[in-house]
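EI: anyone free to look at a 384-residue chain?
SC: sure, send it
EI:
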Amino acid sequence: MADESLNPKDSLTENDYQSKGLLVTGLLLLSLLLITWLLESLGTDLNAARWAFSPSEGWPLGEQQPWKWIHRYGTIPGFLLTLAAIPAWFFCQRSQRYYAWRRYVLIYGLTSIIGAGILVNALLKEHSGRPRPRDVVEFGGNWEYRDALDFGTPGKGRSFPCGHCTMGFSFSVGIVFWQRSRLLASGMFFLGLFYGALVSVARVTQGAHFVSDGVWALGVLMLTLSVLYYFVFKPPLSEKQDFSPMPAKQQRRLFSGILLAMFVMTGLYITRRPFYQDFQKKFTLPLRAESLLLQTNLEKERFELVPSDGKSPMIHLEGRGFALPDTNFRVDFSLPKSGNIPVIRLELKRNGYFAELETRVKLKLPENLINSIRFTELETKSQE
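SC: here you go
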C-alpha cells in the first residue's frame, strides 16, 4: 500500500479533524438519546405496536404487501451494495482516475459490515434482551415490555436494534461521498432514509420490532460511519496523494487476512450466540390429591417449588445459554391417567447444537403437595 503518512504541515489538520469528529459523534449520540427519551415519553413504541396488532388476528398488516415482500427480500439491495464495495475498493486502488475514492468506498463497506453485521446483529441484538412486540404480554406473548435501553437477559428477545432496518438504512451511508460528489452523496442519503423507513414500518406491522429499534439501527450506522471517517481513515487528508497502487502480493495478504478475521468472528458468533427460550403452561390436578409423582429427564435441583396460592397449578421452564442459530428445544408436558397418585410427565428435547444450556423450572402447586412430591427419572424410548 502507498505510504499515506502525513507530513508535519498536515498534523494540525489531522488534530482539527479529530476535534470535529468528537463534536459530530457526540452530537449524533446525544441526538439518539434525546429521540429515545422522546419516544418513550410519548409511548410511541407501544402505541405503534397497538396500531398494528389485532387481538383476534394478531399482526394482519404484516402479511399484506408490500410489507411481506420487504421482510423477505428487503435486505438484498443493501447487502449487494455492501458486497460490491469490496471489489470497488480494489478497483480504486488500481485506478489512477478513482484513486482518491478508495478510502470513501472502504468506509462505506466497513460501516455496513461493522455497524450492521457486528454491532447490531452480532452484539446488540443478541445481548440486549429486549423482547419483540409479539413476545410482549400485552400482545399475546409471555415477556414483559422493556424500553429501548433497558437491557435484559441476553437472548431473551432480539428486538433491539432492528437488523433488517440496518440494511435498509445502509444506502444512507453514501453520505460519505460528500467530498467527491454531493449529488451522489445526498441522493444515497435520502434514498436510504426513505427505504430504511419502509423497512422499519414493515417490521413494526409484523410485530417484530418497535419504532425505536429502527431509529437505533440508523443511529448505530451513523455512529460507526463517524468513527471510521474522522478517527480511522480521514479520507479528505489523503485525496491529493500521488497514485501508488497496492502491490498485488500485499493485496492478496490483506484479502486473506480479511477472510480469516471474518471466519474467526463468524465461528465465535455462531458458537457463542446467546440463547433464551421458555415454556409456560397451566394445568389441573385432582382436588383430593395428597401426593404427586413427577417423571422427568431433568435433575431435581433444577426445580423450584412455590405455592400456587389458590390459583391454577402452573409450570414455567426457562432455558438459557449459548447455541447455534435455529437451535431450540421442545417440551413434552402431559398428565397421563394414573391411579390414586397424579403423575406429571415432563421431557425436554434439544434440537440442534448447544454450546451451553442451563434450565430452570418453576412449578406452582397447591401447598399441601409441595412437601409430598416425588421425582423419578423419565423412561424414554430409544430412537433408532
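EI: The beta strands are 274-282, 292-296, 303-307, 314-323, 328-334, 343-351, 354-365, 373-377.
SC: 👍
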